[in-house]
Specification:
homodimer; mainly alpha; Neurolysin, domain 3; 3 strands; about 5% strand; globular
């Protein structure tokens, strides 16, 4: 056994090295690379990706896995490595290589077409390529679908193991029924809240200092991490000793402030993964949803709470100077907790955010299920925004063209955002029974909260999936009711 | 033929992708990566390097090359690709893989030991590992040495094809005989030159603006390049559309000013390589020496000339402010052209620089030739500094421990620095006969000079080696006399 597993490890290390290189290229591309480099660099990334695929679909890897299974006697970690590898193999083994290469090229063209279409508010120019992407993704999903499994469920499973449309239909119904009326009330109250002090020509250097301070405050380590700037904030990691976050500095300081706390939440997850897991197929966060759970827990559940700001608000005022410095904490708290329906998902408040995802979930289900043609996308999009958020985009740029995901071929990804919030609420109510969260925040003891999460979630990487984590941490399976309760307590009259 | 070459290209592209990834990791490591990441990242780089070596030493590659040779009918470019590939194969094919892996690990440990030894001025702690490195490198060179070829000549050939100790002995003898007395005179005159205005608490932001301005002024393109900060300035490139330089900002502004011009000189070379060569084995500068020729030509030959500064000195004064702004250009020119022997190579002026290299060349020859044991290195080093530069290090940190090269296993590299200066002078005198260099500088027409170099040198990549370039550009083989003439004209009484 030991010998077979050692051989497997060596082969997986080669795959991991290729993957890590691709992560670094992506990071570099988003944060630093000169704009003229893209075409030439893409050729290199394409080759690395092919070399990776060759390992994953090689007879050598399949044989090693088979031998591991036959020989048995796997430790828990080895068992998980074999399982994740099997899943990765089954994700790729039936995909025709030439077709997949054509798809990668299609997608890399498509993001450019999408960006131009969004800029020029020209959905028609994006529609044909989107239709092609959907058709490719459906073909690939069909290669992998189990007996009776819907194509959209195949896609959902890539981002959130153990979740399918049956569970998500229930979840989103709950959201719709509860949040739509709640948002209407909260929105009226929010109109009166002043926010002028959030956008008062604060210098970028102050925003940078605040970003660095907040990242460190929640526990991000600059010895094992990097903070850079990119058009859209994101987190990535080479391994558990090199985790990188980005932010952007704009007119409104709450944008970078909360994006940094959000990304630091992602980063703490990856930094907290055990040393014996990192650089193996088990050495990443359990799922997209569990990742969003960590980031949104930090950004919203604790990051927008009064207790979080009490010990540091003075320091933050010092960093930004006037007018923030003389703005009462209560005004600041009110401003960063306004709930007003808007058109843009990434700018949405905590309450309406779930409705933005609801729209996308319902549409994806129809698109993949063949019940909606791309040509009718804008009108369906606009109709749902009117119905759920009470507002309607005046242009497709502000509507159906706002997100990059579909142009990248990502379908089934959006629901994870909302699931993350729901996981977070479920964990939060349980956590409060075990440790005095508010007191800890008030005393600036972020380390205790981080250790709680590390101990129960972070360290395990992919040893457990998100539902198993929820069961182990909270004693029950996934349930949307905590999320609804949380939103009602926070935004109810 | 076409089909075989196409197969060869595909395999070489895989190797190039792995190599480009390693370049990016190295760049990232020097400019950005968190310090805690090194150990884990090294594992990934080790795997990429192994995957690269496997391609280079594969039977598949050897067979393709053999078939190309047999089928014949190669174009000029194809011929060069095959030739460079053959050389790369022969560089690696006889090196025992396990031994080489052990060597890479040794070297990665050694740079840490060297850094500590330098910090603590403790040569004895570095000596054993240095002895081991030398012994490994000699073994590897022995695997590759041709009949009658000395081991040091094998090493020299890696950096400068067509150069060996026979040529270099002559070259360095000329340097010694001419520069040693010249430096003595120039140094006396230099004592009186004031330099206070070069280190007057100029803010880093001004240094940054000047660095960007100067890089662009000589022709560096930020659409296809990046300027970052690292402990030691360097240039690297992913391909001809992504060329990156670094600098550092210290107390003395001439340090970053001239390092940026120097690195931009390297960068212009890589940016100027033809599109059909980049990302092939021919798509890099011809040699280390020809690269240093470009960088030193920009830094010293034109970069320290009055004509270069005339059109931009006002702008530079504006960027830095007082006291530079009111310092006469003649004072600035005198200050940046002082020639005073010092202990540190990287801080050396143009005139004494060659003597620093001379010391290293003579010592490397002895170390590899077995005529000098590592234990006696410090006293031999100090003796040579006394003899050639008239000064003696008070500590090994300022002496034999100052350079990282030997700890990285680089022997035979140093001579390229001096050769670069000599190539530059030879090209300069010829260039002056063809285009009015000084007038162009005075008119700010840097583009004409860049085009001259691009047309005659840059575009060819490795299609020609440095001696062939010199012959084609100047009509004669390498000759040290232009360099001596240049130094005498500039620094003679």
């Amino acid at each position: 056994m030991a010998e077979t597993f050692e051989k497997l490890n060596r082969l997986l290390e080669r795959a991991a090295a290729l993957q890590t290189a691709m992560v670094l290229f992506e990071w570099d591309n988003e944060t630093l690379a000169p704009k003229g480099a893209a075409l030439h660099t893409a050729k290199m990334i394409g080759s690395l990706s092919e070399q990776y695929m060759e390992i994953v679909t090689s007879a050598e890897l399949a044989d090693l896995i088979k031998t591991c299974r036959k020989e048995g006697g796997l430790t828990g970690l080895q068992e998980a490595v074999v399982r994740e590898t099997e899943e990765e193999i089954s994700r790729w083994k039936d995909i025709p290589v030439a077709e997949y290469r054509a798809f990668r090229e299609l997608v890399s063209r498509a993001t450019g077409i999408w960006a131009k279409a969004r800029e020029e508010n020209d959905f028609a120019s994006f529609a044909p390529v989107l239709r092609e992407i959907i058709s490719c993704q459906k073909r690939f999903a069909a290669c992998r679908a189990k007996e009776g499994q819907s194509l959209y469920d195949v896609m959902l499973g890539d981002y959130e193991k153990g979740f399918d449309t049956e569970i998500l239909d229930d979840f989103f119904r709950e959201l719709r029924e509860n949040i739509v009326p709640l948002l209407r009330e909260a929105s009226e109250r929010s109109q009166k809240i002043r926010t002028d002090f959030l956008s008062a020509d604060y210098p970028v250097s102050a925003q940078e200092r605040a970003a660095r301070f907040l990242a460190e405050y929640v526990g991000f380590s600059f010895d094992r991490g990097v903070l850079s700037v990119s058009a859209h904030p994101f987190t990535t990691n080479l391994h558990n000793h090199d985790v990188r976050i980005t932010t952007h500095y704009g007119k409104r300081i709450d944008s970078s402030v909360f994006s940094v706390i959000h990304e630091a939440g992602h980063a703490l997850y990856e930094l907290g993964i055990r040393d014996d897991l990192t650089q193996t197929p088990v050495g990443q966060g359990a799922s997209m949803g569990m990742h969003e759970c960590q980031s949104r827990f930090y950004e919203n559940i604790i990051g927008r709470s009064r207790a979080f700001w009490e010990p540091i608000y003075g320091k933050i005022g010092e960093i930004f100077g006037e007018p923030l410095a003389s703005t009462p904490l209560d005004d600041f708290m009110a401003a960063v907790n306004r709930a007003v329906p808007g058109l843009i998902r990434t700018e949405a408040d905590e309450l309406s955010y779930g409705l933005h995802i609801l729209v996308r979930y319902e549409i994806e289900k129809m698109l993949i299920g063949g019940e909606l043609d791309v040509d009718h996308l804008p009108e369906v999009w606009n109709g749902k925004y009117r119905e759920y958020l009470g507002i309607c985009p005046e242009s497709d740029s502000q509507g159906v063209l706002q997100d990059i995901h579909w142009s990248q071929g990502s379908f089934g990804y959006f629901p994870s955002y909302a699931l993350g919030s729901a996981f977070g609420a479920q964990i939060y109510y349980h956590m409060k029974e075990e440790i005095p969260v508010e007191d800890l925040l008030r005393e600036g003891k972020l380390g205790d909260i981080r250790e709680y999460l590390r101990d129960r979630i972070h360290q395990y990487g992919k040893l457990k999936d998100s539902r198993a984590i929820l069961r182990d941490v909270t004693g029950e399976d996934f349930s949307p009711r905590y999320y609804i309760r949380y939103l009602k307590e926070k935004y109810g009259a």
